[in-house]
Amino acid sequence: MNLILLGAPGSGKGTQAKKIGVRYNIPQVSTGDILREAVSNKTALGLKAQEYMNTGLLVPDNVVIDIIKERIEKKDCGNGFILDGFPRTLSQAEELNKILELQRKKIEAVISFEVNDKILIKRLSGRRICRKCGRGYHVDFQPPKKDGICDVCQGELYQRQDDKEETIINRLKVYKEQTESLKDYYNNKKILKTVNGEADMDCIFTSLTGYLDEI
Ligand code: AMP
Known about the structure:
By secondary structure, the protein is an alpha/beta fold. It has a domain at 2-116 and 178-212: P-loop containing nucleotide triphosphate hydrolases (Rossmann fold, 3-Layer(aba) Sandwich), CATH 3.40.50.300. It has 9 helices and 8 strands. The strands form 2 sheets. Strands 2-3-1-4-8 form a 5-stranded parallel sheet, sandwiched between helices. A 3-stranded antiparallel sheet has the order 6-5-7. Helix 1 crosses helix 9, helix 2 (31-40) packs across helix 3 and helix 4 runs parallel beside helix 5. The protein is globular, with a radius of gyration of 17 Å. The model has no long low-confidence stretch (mean pLDDT 96). Bound molecules: adenosine monophosphate (AMP).
């Protein structure tokens, strides 16, 4: 089962990707995670991507397409994968088609998470992550027991550079201008499924599995 999760930053697609991955035993492939790791390891890729990411702009298509091509050729994607944060432009979507065709694969479903801007801004600006174990928190919706400290490993919590308010506004604008039209693109291919990303996390997952179990 090869899936694409589509949605604005903060729409909850990463959270659902992890849950779907566990249930169907397929990897979550997040271009954002791959790029952040490259930035933190200061690799050539990371140095190239950092500036774009910090300002909320998209990393150039050729860079992310190379990442995806290499990643989905790996053995663990043999039974399927969940693309989280890719494609984000029409040209990425078309390149993905070519890559999949060569591998005799196809996308079974594209799931779009719908959430209004006000909620997205609140979710993103309150998001905090543990430096040590990567666990996610939210200052209002899922606060740690001790301010700024991870409940699980006592690591320090930090705010992603691109979760600062001025960058969030830019990321949402970029989503609307460059990514949102992919919904029409996949709707025309009759593989788009829309979910209410404002609903409770477990309700979304139940409705998604009901749908995915039938594929
Ligand atoms: P995310 O964690 O998915 O919100 O991604 C964080 C940042 O990584 C984005 O704001 C972009 O700068 C970059 N990025 C991630 N995926 C892509 C992509 N498919 N195309 C271009 N840039 C991307």
